[in-house]
Amino acid sequence: MKTKARGAMMRYRKLLVTPCLLSVVLLTFFMNAKTIGAQAVYAANAVKMCSPWSVVASPNPGNDTNGLAGVAAVSTNNVWAVGSTQTNGVVQTLTEHWNGSQWSVVASHGPASESQLSAVAVVPGTKQLWAVGEYFDTYWHTLTLHWNGSQWVLVPSPSMVGQFNFLIGVTAISAKDIWAVGNVYNGNNTNTLTMHWDGSQWSIVPSPNPSSFYNTLNAVTSISKNDVWAVGAYNGTNGQPSLIEHWNGTSWSIVSGPSPSQAFNTLNAIARVPGTKQLWAVGYYFATPNSSTPLTLIEQWNGKQWSVVSSPSPGTGFSVLQGVVAVSARDVWAVGYESPGEIPIVTLVEHWNGTSWSVISSPNPDNAATLYAVTRVPGTHKLWAVGGSNGEGGTLTESYCQ
Questions:
Q1: How many whole angstroms separate alpha carbon 311 and alpha carbon 359?
Q2: Which of 91-95, 121-125, 388-392 shows the lowest mean pLDDT across its residues?
Q3: N or C: the chain end with fewer CB closer than 10 Å?
Q4: How many CB atoms neighbour CB 190 within 10 A?
Q5: What integer pLDDT is reported at residue 24 of this predicted model?
Q6: Of 283, 277, 312, nearest in space to 298 by CA
Q7: Are 175 and 126 spatial neighbours (Cβ–Cβ below 8 Å)?
Q8: How confident is the model at residue 105 (pLDDT cuts 50, 70, 90)?
Q9: Neighbour tally for 97: CB within 10 Å
């Protein structure tokens, strides 16, 4: 597989789960053209720092494509976004920082010429962060980077030998308690991958796989050291629920979840309601086994069980949710993208007000943009969402405050 194509596939791999999504994925890939001035477009629209959602200028170092897949906030003047940048067909990690007035690129790197990042998390009570992804050297290997307050440092992490390893989500409980999740592909089957940082090293921790063919964990969040949740998908019989797994301090186990239809469904992100044990998870599902139109999927954990909560799917082509964050029990946000037909692909933002989910207007540079992650600035009602401008192949950062 050529380098450029492989980089695009990794960036959007949360969608690479069933053949019926192939057309959606290919459409997303080929809409990523070379960057021809996305920064100028963003600058013309920015910088509104409060509601409604508004585009904020962000840099694009690569001359092919640039995209952001994860975002985390330490404070109002200290926000980080991670993803990948591509120059002359070579994919490399991309880390960007918001200092309260502008976004800038901060140096980061993997151990090989090709590497990329999918998620980032703040260590609570500190200015330290962890970012995860993978790098390519014959096979894809796990990649973990640590921000120690002054620079990004490459930290060795294990990989399944002779297999393709991908890290997609990360959560930090403390400086000595970090979880990362993803999947590993051996050429025939894809299985879940969970890794733990104990303050001195990363280690692979066994996690269950309900399917003999395809299993993945796309996101992880934590309530406490003995209460960690990961979500994803698996291919089994028709009508299977999304994959939900729980860490009780000793082992990972599968938790029963609802199935919104008799077809495939997946969860791409999970978030905790602050100060509670309530959780929200988002993704997409197909209404029927023969459907090629993904619809939004939102599930809630009330502390005892998971249930599907009705959510709008405005796209006639498809509607997909990729990120979620909870401000309070009555203030939850989800982001993703939808299509009114074959093209274009546009941003999708939805809000929970304690009673129902509704679509909230969000900007779309070049009428072709996607959002992949969302975060809240601690102690505020300020939000950041990140993704990419498909028309220009550039990074996309959007802000909102209530």
A1: 9
A2: 388-392
A3: N
A4: 23
A5: 35
A6: 283
A7: yes
A8: very high
A9: 16
Inter-residue contact 210 to 234 (CB < 8 Å)? yes
For 17-21, 33-37, 217-221, which range has the lowest pLDDT when averaged over its residues? 33-37
Query: What value does the mean pLDDT take over residues 95-117?
Result: 95
Token digits of residue 65: 């494509």
User: Residue type at 75?
Assistant: S
DSSP secondary structure of 141-194: EEEEEEE-SSSEEEE-----TTSEEEEEEEEEEETTEEEEEEEEE-SS-EEEEE
Residue among 232, 310, 312, 329 at smallest CA distance from 272: 329
CA 297 – CA 74 distance, rounded (Å): 29
Angle subtended by helix axes 3-11 and 22-30, to nearest 10: 120
Q: What are phi and psi of 26, to 5 degrees?
A: -60, -40
Q: Residue 379 has which token pair?
A: 């102690």
- Please, what's the largest Cα pairwise distance for the chain? 52
What is the pLDDT at residue 392? 67
Q: Scan for tokens 């950062």, then name that residue.
A: 397
Mean pLDDT for the stretch of residues 287-295: 90
Query: Of 3.30.470.20, 2.60.40.1120, 2.120.10.80, 3.40.630.10, which CATH number belongs to 3-401?
Result: 2.120.10.80
